[in-house]
Specification:
Layout: E1 3-7, H1 11-23, E2 27-31, H2 34-43, E3 48-51, H3 60-68, E4 75-79, H4 84-93, E5 97-100, H5 105-120, E6 129-131, E7 134-137, E8 142-145, E9 148-149, H6 154-165, H7 173-181, H8 189-202, E10 212-215, E11 219-222
Parallel strand pairs: 1-2, 1-3, 3-4, 4-5
Antiparallel strand pairs: 6-7, 7-8, 8-9, 10-11
Helix pairs in contact: 2-3, 4-8, 6-7, 6-8
């Protein structure tokens, strides 16, 4: 049974989420602070973590950064804050997705299932792909630029592999949401933020990308 850790300081919201998740078939437990949640995750890891942002002590942004340093568990932010800056900051801290309160539990459950399927997916053996000075080894989970290893998160790696598989072709944001995140629909800012982070790692000049280019109004393309 999939285990979910809910880090939420509002007792009523936390209890409501725990009960709703259990009705959806999850094993759910909660923490009122980031510190408590981090201790729980390190001692008894959950399969997914839901993180509020407005927490006492360490806030959600810092909590996500600390968790992401040594754990690649799928993280979903659940917050009333719907400002684009907050969403981008949470994703850049290491969150995989962002859901705005009030929450539709069926939608949240569907996203958790998609994230778990993605986390468990095994990449079929594929020969090393060379795109410019990038060497991408899907089966080994490795990327090199100019012969030097490039550390990528799981999501960044899957995004790059998807773009490399269709190198020279434009993929829309919705196509990438479906193929990388497993969502039939969703917030396209997820794609934009992860593309931006990926550019910072694979481009010599991220502001003038040579490999990962934007086709305005169409999507993204990895140049051959």
């Amino acid at each position: 049974m999939t285990a979910v850790l809910v880090i939420e300081d509002d007792d009523r919201i936390r209890l409501a989420l725990l009960l709703a998740l259990e009705e959806e078939g999850y094993t759910a437990r909660g923490a009122a602070t980031a510190e408590e949640g981090l201790r729980m995750q390190r001692s008894d890891p959950a399969d997914n973590v839901l993180f509020d942002l407005m927490l006492p002590g360490i806030d959600g942004f810092e909590g996500i950064r600390q968790l992401r340093r040594d754990d690649d568990v799928p993280i979903v932010v659940v917050s009333a804050r719907d400002d684009t800056h907050d969403i981008v900051a949470a994703l850049e801290a290491g969150a995989d997705d962002y859901v705005v309160k009030p929450i539709a539990i069926k939608e949240l459950s569907a996203r958790l299932r998609a994230l778990r399927r993605r986390a468990r997916a095994v990449v079929a053996p594929v020969a090393v792909q060379v795109v410019g000075d990038l060497e991408i080894s899907p089966d080994a989970g490795e990327v090199r630029r100019g012969g030097h290893p490039v550390p990528l998160t799981r999501t960044e790696f899957r995004l790059l592999c998807e773009l490399a598989e269709h190198a020279g072709r434009v993929l829309s944001r919705q196509q990438l949401l479906q193929r990388v995140w497993g969502y039939d629909s969703g917030d396209e800012r997820l794609v934009d933020v992860h593309v931006g982070r990926l550019r910072q790692k694979i481009e010599a000049e991220p502001g003038n990308p040579r490999h990962l280019v934007t086709l305005r109004g169409l999507g993204y393309k990895l140049q051959r």
